[in-house]
Amino acid sequence: MAAEPWQKYEIPGPTKAVVITKPEVVSALVTRAKNPILVAGFKTAEIDFGNGKKPIDYVIRIAKAANIPVVATAHTVSEFLKRDFKPTAWMSAMDIGNRLTDPTWSVTGKNPPHDLALIIGISHYYMSWLIMSGLKSFAYKHLKTVSIDQYYYPHCNWSFPNLSLKDWEKNLTAIAENLEKGRKK
Amino acid sequence: MTKMRIKIDELGTDILKAKGFELSVGRVVEEWEETPGPNPMPDISTLREWDHKLLKKYKPFYLPFCDLCCLCTMGKCDLSKGKRGACGLDMAAQQSRIVLLSCAIGAATHTGHARHLIEELIEKFGRDHPINVGDGSVYLEAPHARLVTGIKPKTLGDLEDIVEYCEKEIVHLLSCCHTGQEGNNIDFESKVFHAGMIDHVAMEACDIAQISTYNFPKADPEAPLVEIGIGTIDTHKPVILVIGHNVPPAVEIYEYMKRNGLENDVELCGICCTAIDITRHTQKAKIVGPLSHQLRFVRSGVADVIVVDEQCIRTDILNEAMKVNAVLISTHYKNFQGLPDRTNDPTDEIVNDLVSGKAPGACILNSEKAGEVAVRVAVAIAPKRRKMGIIPEDSQIIEAAKKCTQCHSCQRVCPNNLPIPEAMKAAAKGDLKPLADLYERCIGCVRCESEGVCPNNLHPHTLMVGASRIKIREEKFKIRAGRGPIQDVEIRRVGGPIVLGEIPGIVALVGCANWPDWKANALIAEEFAKRNFIVVATGCAAMAMAMYRNEEGLTVYEAFPGAFDAGGVLNVGSCVSNPHISGAAIKIASIFAKRKLNSNYEEIADYVHNRVGAVGISWGAMSQKASSIASGFWRLGIPVIVGPHGSKYRRALLGRKDRDEDWYVIDARTGERVYVGPTPEHLFFPVETVEEAMVMIPKLCMRPSDTTKGRAIKLNHYIDLHKKFYGTLPDDIHLFVRTVADIPVTMKDEILEFLKEKGWKESKNPSPDPTLLPRLIRVKKEG
Q1: Is A134 in Cβ contact with B688 (below 8 Å)?
Q2: Which of B261, B270, B486, B766 is the most buried (most CB within 10 A)?
Q3: Residues of A with Cβ-Cβ distance to B65 under 8 angstroms
């Protein structure tokens, strides 16, 4: 399936992310990863699905279900704390991008490097796009990247296509449910 | 040093008859109180070792804007995932090469501006016209020129020698971007720093020239308040709009008005730095606003005549002027706009052609003539034009919005991803508020109106401006006119408190108008002025800071004093005034700490980096000039924060606070290596949100030299803002607390508990005399 960058002029290059058509793919990637990490930006707390829920609520569900460490960027940590969830760390989007290029680093200090990064909600499409571009060229030997944002991010290894809010929530729900089921087994 | 020149208009001897004879005799070395230091007129290689020291701490994190290199005919080459191009270059080197190209363009633009301006001013005022930037309050008139070139300029002619050095260096820097030159990314980055240093030297020469000749405020903390905002423009008068950066044509417009008694009959206003600079010359001129206001004001039709000079002008300005029947006058060869060169035509003829509509505009490369033509044309055509604009009324907006198909094309080409379709949906139902609410987040680029973007050919930007009519009319604010340099006496007063940390920092708001919202500039300025930081500003950032009122109805320039002191808010001036900010840091090293200035860049930069708590913020950084301005700060070791669009500069320069080994300095007293923590943590840092910027500012103001009192003050601001915006204590306090005395008193219990959890131990040497330069060790350790 072909997909286009959400901001039309953010054209990447010859290699583009594989489009995730089924959210089960994300659950499977997480389950198979040895040391995954979830990076969440402030958009996760700004966007409202219209039913009282926000993307950050699903981030927490996914993190708990798969026991993935969460790094909150910008001032997103305050929103996690309001929901009684303490992220493993909080740092700028630039810092986490930079550290993920380092094969000797992991957020917990254990089992470096991270081999899978789920990325969601960094506040500006182009900024997230650029960080993923940095990871594509400078972390490719040890890290796979997955965008579970609302939009298509061509520099990841895998990405959702551009989605309506409704479909995005549906996909996040499915990922959380799959991982929760896996945990019960 | 000065060049000796002999100029004879007409020479007649037995053996030679000549007209316009000019003889130039090398440089005459003129002693000043300091002997030259180790690095007069450094070339690309001279300061490489210093650059590498900084780049070892602050490594580039590259953010490739594109996987490809398209610069030569062997390409395109895919450089992603470890691939190399046909020339052998890898992705890291390619990204830093593009940063160098950007900074070389930026430095060349300022240097070209300086060259053009200084030549014009020499022509008008003479080569021997004295330098005067402070009316006796500024003895260190050119800190950058003295530091880098060893030249102590006394006359306009001396500034030419300074610019000549800059031109030579920029040619070499630009040549390094050619295929098959540099191959190492860190060496490219060192050249980036060189471009930035050169840029500050050239900008300084440029501003010194115009301050000395055009009666600008001279280091005046009480520079007058002037009007800013579209609402301040009197639309009943003929209106002349100046756009760009080179102020002589605007000055000549005003001088012609004055000579002809038209000062109160014609409105002179401006956009971008020419606007800032013309209000330094006359407080009768007004500032429309920053760059983002360019198109919306032109389309309002208020301006009868538009006069452009150089830089940051919309390249489709002639088309836009023609849409509203305004006349365009181009005054600079950098921007002909396809117009005929009328410089040598009779003035009456040009005026007649423009007034009759025979020509839509003219290029006039003589400032005086351009000034006269602009005023005479404006007076003649204003009654006929009747301010013809293309801004729609409410009913037209609603009808247009009904045609929106919600395809999202406009949103997807908008740099700020503004939710235009949602606003159009509401507008179609008669609710124009969501459309008007986009106004402060719109940068005015009008990509949403580009050919083929909207399938129904709607013009979202124009509709948004129409919906914001009332708000725009209410844009009436005050900004302090650009004051120019910082006085020597001000440096003496604050040098100690800054170096010791008791004034928590200098916050410099600079740069362009490519921001996610403009209000952030004022919010940052207000927050840190209240916290007793020194807030300084230039250019579009200085303007945007003025366009917001606090709860008492005051702008930051009305609410805070204009002195370089704790709690001051200073508009230093235009883009080329930025070196007065970096120059203030240099002056602290020179005047307060009495470090040798003459040709002594490395030592001064080492001092500034380790002791002067300053940080630059460019919330709307856009241009190549902004990148070279930033790189001039980097070479001095001063960190720069950019708004999110700044991530497009292709790389950040980031420290790793988790790596203790990166944060050692040498104690110059003993030669001992001392851990001082990540102070400052980053050198170039794009942020995601304004809240993140607010927290990073005090953090990046920490320096190894802080006294315990100073560090406690800085920590207090950092922790307080972190709690306010992040809702919790920072997780890295232990890296900044050296002794218990560093802990802010009001937070002592809480922080001690935190430190205990982290296993923190007191530093054995909390107050080193910090340096990165082994040659500055005064007593070497035995053995």
Answers
A1: no
A2: B486
A3: 130, 133
Alpha carbons A59 and A172: distance in angstroms, whole number: 8
Average pLDDT score over residue span B141-168:
97
Residue B276 has pLDDT above 80, yes or no: yes
Tell me if chain B has a CB within 8 Å of the CB of A16.
no
Q: Is B64 on the interface with A (CB under 8 A)?
A: yes
CATH number of A18-184: 3.40.50.1220
Confidence of residue B1 (pLDDT cuts 50, 70, 90): very low
CA separation for the pair B238, B383 (Å, rounded)? 8
Q: Closest chain B residue to A151 measured between Cα atoms?
A: B412
- List CB contacts (< 8 A) between B63 and chain A: 97, 130-131, 133-134
Whole-complex ipTM: 0.97
The confidence band for B3, taking pLDDT boundaries of 50, 70 and 90, is: low
Q: Which of B63, B91, B406, B410 to mutate to test the interface with A (most CBs of A within 10 A)?
A: B63
- Look at residue B2 in the predicted model and tell me its pLDDT: 46
Contact (Cβ atoms closer than 8 angstroms) between residue B414 and residue B444: no
Span of B383-397, B652-666, B723-737 with lowest mean pLDDT:
B383-397
Contacts of A36 (CB under 8 A, 6+ apart): A30, A66, A68, A114, A115, A116, A117, A118
Using the predicted structure, report yes or no on whether residue A176 has a pLDDT greater than 90: yes
pLDDT of amino acid B59: 98
Domain locations along chain A: 18-184
pLDDT of amino acid B618: 97
Whether the CB of B648 is below 8 Å from some CB of chain A: the reply is yes
DSSP code at position B341? B
Average pLDDT, rounded, for chain B: 95
The amino acid present at B595, given as its one-letter code, is: R
Pick A13's closest partner by Cβ from B62, B68, B687: B68
pLDDT of residue B781: 53
Average pLDDT over residues B68-88: 97
In A, minimum Cα distance to B723 occurs at A78
- Contact yes or no for B310/B246 (Cβ under 8 A): yes
Q: What's the whole-number average pLDDT of chain A? A: 96
CA-to-CA dists, residue B450 to B316, B344, B455, B461, B514, angstroms: 12, 37, 11, 10, 18
What's the token pair of residue B629? 């301005």
Dihedral of the CA atoms A59, A62, A68, A70 (nearest 10)? 10
Write the residue in B67, B647, B726 that is nearest to A90 by C-beta. B726
Choose the mutation target among B80, B658, B682, B688 for the interface with A, i.e. most A CBs under 10 Å.
Answer: B688
Which domains, and CATH codes, for chain B? 1-29 (no CATH), 31-219+486-661+678-701 (3.40.50.2030), 225-385 (3.40.50.2030), 416-464 (no CATH)
In this structure, are residues A109 and A89 in contact, taking their beta carbons and an 8 Å threshold? Answer: no
Characterize the bridge pairing of strands B2-12 and B17-28.
antiparallel
